[in-house]
Design goal:
- This is EVE domain-containing protein.
- Helix content is 23%, strand content 32%.
- With 150 residues, it is α+β, with helices and mostly antiparallel strands.
- The protein has a 6-stranded mixed β-sheet with strand order 2-5-4-3-1-6.
- The longest helix is centred in the C-terminal third of the chain and has 11 residues.
- The radius of gyration is 15 Å and the shape is globular.
- The chain binds a DNA duplex (12 and 12 nucleotides) through loops.
DNA sequence: GCCAACGTTGGC
DNA sequence: GCCAACGTTGGC
């Protein structure tokens, strides 16, 4: 059992969208490191911090869990999609996604508040220059964050 | 809209 | 395999 932080732009998929849909495919990842996390390291039931990025109030907005293991991201084959990848074919798909299931909405734990917590200083997502849309979260960090969210 | 940081591309 | 140029992310 591992833990992850996954960034989503709320204009695209917010925690409220996830709540109403129940489950979403995590489409659109176009970074190899993030893809490899999904493909190689995620397991069913892994804990997910649902993070709102590129928005007025960036931060953790809720909890989710991995509900389906990696499979090809359909948007890579769709010429109409902004995530279309002409170098990808159904035979040799380049990009993968997992499905993520809603667990619960939380208060917004802002990026600013996270930065002020000494115990969270080591979090991958807080490291200088980090741009990965999926990062791993240690068990201790997960526990600390859950305590902050209650 | 700016821009720092980083990933990817492609010429050599 | 190097590395400059370019593109993207994402906070501010």
């Amino acid at each position: 059992m591992r833990y992850w932080l996954m960034k989503s732009e709320p204009d695209d998929v917010s925690i409220d969208d996830l709540a109403s849909m129940g489950e979403v495919g995590w489409y659109g990842v176009r970074n190899y490191q993030a893809r490899n996390f999904m493909r190689d390291a995620m397991a069913l039931g892994d804990g997910v911090l649902f993070y709102h990025s590129s928005c007025p109030q960036p931060g953790v907005a809720g909890l989710a869990e991995v509900s389906r293991l990696a499979y090809p991201d359909p948007t890579q084959f769709d010429p109409e999609s902004r995530y279309f990848d002409p170098k990808s074919t159904p035979d040799q798909p380049r990009w993968q996604q997992v499905d993520v299931r809603f667990v619960r909405k939380t208060r917004l734990l802002s990026l600013d508040e996270m930065r002020r917590m000494p115990t969270l200083a080591g979090m991958q997502v807080l490291q200088r220059g980090n741009r990965l849309s999926i990062t791993s979260v240690s068990e201790a960090e997960w526990r600390d964050i859950l305590a902050l969210l209650d």
